Amino acid sequence: MPIKIPDALPATDVLEGENIFVMTELRAMHQDIRPLKVLLLNLMPTKIVTETQIMRKLSNTPLQIEVSLLQTASHESKNVSAQHLETFYTTFDEIKDQHFDGMIITGAPVELLDFEDVDYWDELAEIMAWSATNVHSTLHICWGAQAGIYYHYGIPKYELPEKLFGVFEHEVVKPSSPLVRGFNDFFRAPHSRYTEVHASDIEAHPDLELIAVSDEAGVYIAKSTDSRHFFVFGHPEYDAGTLMVEYERDIAKGLDMPLPRHYFPNDDPAQAPRATWRAHAQLLYTNWLNYYVYQTTPYDLAKVGTEEVGNRG
Question: TM spans, by residue (predicted)?
Fold first, then answer.
């Protein structure tokens, strides 16, 4: 099934070029089906890249999904044109009376700031509070996961001695969870961050559970026991070359940046990196959409947030 996005969005041409089924708004109007409404709160500075990466994952499922793009009004984005934001993005005031089946909150390059020192923290906190009554299930990514688990459950983040940067092996520690159905026992995923949360803090909280961890990278996936909140502390949506772009950017800035670990073949940056996480990344998004959104969301959108998701494990 297709993903329904605005016809002129830059991601449309990219996805169609990859033979991904993208449905025009006109065609979608003539289908007698209620698509899942998913709100993407994009906090990344490279908004077009991020929206394309995430829509690629959302599109490869049997479900029809209608994506709305949300930006923070309290922060001025400098790496995307004002026209792009005005054309394709809404603000919280414009959608706060609506209901959504799912929401995704992306990462942001603000990890070394205390949460309350981020210039849009108050607005983000308002959105996360609103999600309790207007969103059925929320997926938080990287810094968005750290922010979400802190806001909802008081789990702190801790600064790392150096940037966690590369592609790391992880172990599924709760294989019975539908979120990781189809996963291998061990799988790889990218990370790019300066802070972390501790598994012991999550294990000590009665409303949280660990799903996947890494000996090198720490916690990768956690969720709430009521299946309303999912926290992914890496970047499963990244393309094969994303970490390379980040590495070259930081080197160009004169930063003493080590090579991303387990990323370049033979640790040689002259060799093209290969995506070794794509299949599990797709499974993660597909399983979240199927088991925790589509299978449990009320058909009447007005009832979203009034019914329990139920613990699907």
Answer: none
Please give the average per-residue pLDDT across 172-197, as a whole number. 97
CATH number of 35-159+171-238+278-301: 3.40.50.880
Report H helices in the chain. Answer: 10-17, 25-29, 47-59, 82-88, 92-95, 121-134, 143-153, 199-203, 242-252, 278-287
- Taken as a whole, the chain contains a residue count of 313
The string of pLDDT tens digits covering residues 74-119 is 888 776 778 888 889 999 999 999 999 999 999 999 999 999 999 9
- In the set 142, 191, 209, 280, the catalytic residue is 142
CA gap 144, 135 in Å, rounded: 16
pTM, entire model = 0.88
Catalytic: 235?
yes
Domain ranges of the chain: 35-159+171-238+278-301
> Which residues fall in the annotated binding site?
163, 192, 249
- Binding-site residue ranges for substrate: 163, 192, 249
Is 237 tagged catalytic?
A: yes
